[in-house]
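2024-03-11 09:14:02 DEBUG pipeline.ingest accepted 1 chain
2024-03-11 09:14:02 DEBUG pipeline.ingest length=275
2024-03-11 09:14:03 DEBUG pipeline.predict start
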Amino acid sequence: MTMTFDFSGKNVFVAGGTSGINFGVAQGFARWGAKVVVASRKQDKVDAAVQGLKDLGAEATGFAFDVRDYEAVAAGLKGAVDFFGGSIDVLISGAAGNFPARLMGMSPNAIKSVVDIDLLGTFHVMRAAHEHLTQPGASVINISAPQAYLPMAYQAHVCAAKAGVDMVTRTLAIEWGGDGIRVNSIVPGPIAGTEGMARLAPTPDILSAVEKSVPLGRLGQTDDIAKAAAMLSSDAGAYISGVVLPVDGGWSQEGATSVMSKAAKFMDKMTGQGS
C-alpha cells in the first residue's frame, strides 16, 4: 500500500537535515508538498541537500550552523522563518554525533562532544525555535536512538545523551502543551544506507546479523522514518504528544541488544579496547 500525505502550505524545518535519516525525512515532506528548510554544519552539504529538495519540486533553502552554538541556531531559525514568510508548522531536530568507543577509550572532550551535539544541541534548537512555532498546531519531533533506553557497549556517551533527549521531549510535551504544541520523539531502528548504521555494523557479516535480528526481517528505510514523522505531524496525530516512538520493525524488543553485543566483540578485536 502506498501512503501519502498532504502538507501543502506547511512549513517544515529539519535540523541536521542534509544527510541520512534526517535528509530522508526532509525529502518526504518535500514530496508531500511542504516548504522545507534544512540545516547542518557544512555549507556544501546544505547546498547539495537543498538542490535535492528542489529537484523534488519543493520550495527549499538551507542554513549552515553548528547546533552547539546557540546564537547561530537562533539566527538560522530566524532566517528560516523569513524564508517561510510565516511560522514553523513542523520542527524536526535530528543533529547527532556518534563514534564507537568504550568509556575508558574516550577522552573527556570526546564524551563532551557527543553530549554537546546530541543533548545540548537539542536544547538549543528547542529553545530558539519556540517563538517561531505555530501556536496552536505545531508538531515538534526529536530524532532519538535505541541507545536512549537500551544499554550498548561502545555507546555510553550516546546512551546518556539520547536518554536526555527523550526526557527533554517528554518534559516539553508538558510545558508546551498549553501553547498547543505537540512534542514527540522518533527512535529509528537499523536504517539501511546511513552513516550511523555503517558505524555500528562495520562489516557485511554484522550487517547481515542485524538484519536477521529484526523481527520484521528487514532493515528500515529512511522513508519509514519520514512516514512516521508525517503521521505524528498530520491530523492523525493531533492527540499524540510526549511519545517516544520506536520505528524499528520490533528490533528493540530483543534483537538490538544481542546483535550489538556481538558487534562490540568485533570492535574489541579491531581496537584492542576489550574490557
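2024-03-11 09:14:41 DEBUG pipeline.report The radius of gyration is 18 Å.
2024-03-11 09:14:41 DEBUG pipeline.predict end
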